[in-house]
Specification:
By secondary structure, the protein is an alpha+beta fold. About 15% of the residues lie in helices and about 35% in strands. It has helices at about 120-125, 220-225, 235-240, 285-295, 305, 310-320, 325-335; strands at about 1-15, 25-40, 45-55, 70-75, 80-85, 85-90, 100-110, 115-120, 135-145, 165-175, 195-200, 210-215, 260-265, 270-275, 280-285. Strand 13 (about 260-265) and strand 14 (about 270-275) form a beta hairpin.
């Protein structure tokens, strides 16, 4: 995953419609454009995601994506257009904080460059003279994810290796439309005032070249959660965050080959292999045993406190599968290991 930049879609007057300002209150239509170059010698498939602000109760409907107020267009050449809208993803919605939407299956052949545009739906929202002023303002930030079989949306081809180099160039482009322009009489009007602007947006890391992978919350909650700032199993348990909470965020049909995640138990960094099988995270007994042997060598725990590796593995997998009782038992085990 790579966070690309923030963005703002606009379709509204640039000044209040009443008073002297109304004479210059042209309507601005601003879209977000992202050029993406595939620097790899293989074809890649990307998912474009956004996180947008949540509207307040008194805000208009056009402060967030709907099924009709936007258009997403992707093309590699001028004759290869894909028109769709931003689609809401239920697992990406955080009530009262942010909304998650996506454009799925952006395919870019090896060495080629595509252009993705997220635009206000001018066709339906641009008013005729005398109509109420439009008021579309959608703000957020954009991410790109390399697709894999874990994406839990469609059975996409597994990306191997699970990383890719891309070159990105985000920008805003705006058109300023005369308030007297009548879209119903296009091509017959004269003496109208139009203008255009375009400006580049800074990327999140200040670089045009990005390395993206499939390890993101969107497709692998275990990988993302364990390597996040939460600090690992030990600290997560002490913060009363249960790893069983990862279960609802993964598709029941999701499957992966073996992966490895890194985290800390106390101050000891460890790594453990896992797979996703039929929508469940699963760790192997051998992996748990290796972690516990490392803790023994570091003298962080005693053999007596470890108990049965088989039993511990069973509790971890049950908790990852959403078992509340196992999750409580696992919390007690790790708190004991850490001397809590």
């Amino acid at each position: 995953m790579a966070i690309i930049s923030n963005f703002e879609l606009l379709l509204k007057p640039i000044a209040p419609s009443g008073g002297p300002a109304g004479e210059v209150a042209r309507i601005v239509v601003q879209g977000y454009f992202l050029e993406i170059s595939n620097l790899e010698a293989r074809d890649i498939t990307l998912i474009f995601r956004t996180r947008t602000s949540v509207k307040e109760a008194t805000d208009g409907i056009n402060t967030e994506f709907t099924d009709t107020n936007n258009a997403a267009v992707f093309d590699i050449t001028q004759d290869n257009l894909l028109e769709t809208v931003m689609v809401a993803n239920a697992t990406e919605l955080i009530p009262g904080k942010q909304l998650g939407h996506f454009v799925n299956c952006i395919q870019i052949p090896a060495g080629q460059t595509g252009s993705l545009a997220i635009l206000p739906n001018v066709r339906d929202l641009l008013p005729r003279p005398g109509d109420p002023s439009p008021d579309l303002v959608i703000r957020g930030y954009a991410e790109l994810v390399l697709s894999s079989t874990v994406d839990s949306l469609f059975p996409l081809a597994f990306s191997a290796p699970e990383s890719a180099r891309i070159l990105v160039s985000p920008e805003h482009r705006s058109t300023y439309i005369d308030p007297e322009f009548d879209p119903a009489n296009f091509g017959t009007q004269t003496d109208l005032d139009f203008d255009q602007t375009a400006y580049s947006l800074p990327t999140a890391n200040g670089q045009a070249m990005q390395l993206i992978d499939t390890h993101a919350r969107f497709n692998d909650t275990f990988q993302d959660f364990m390597t996040s700032n939460a600090g690992g199993i030990g600290r997560i348990v002490q913060q009363s965050t249960q790893i069983r909470s990862l279960k609802p965020n993964i598709s029941r049909q999701a499957n992966t080959a073996e992966r490895v995640t890194a985290f800390t138990i106390g101050s000891v960094p460890v790594r453990i292999p896992y797979v996703i099988k039929n929508g469940n995270f699963t760790v192997a007994e051998a992996g748990v045993e290796k972690v516990m042997n490392l803790l023994l060598r570091k003298r962080k725990v005693s053999k007596r406190s470890l108990g049965s590796i088989k039993s511990l593995t069973k509790k971890i997998n049950a908790s990852l599968a959403g078992d509340q009782k196992a999750s409580v038992q696992l919390s007690k085990v790790f708190n004991r290991l850490l001397g809590a």
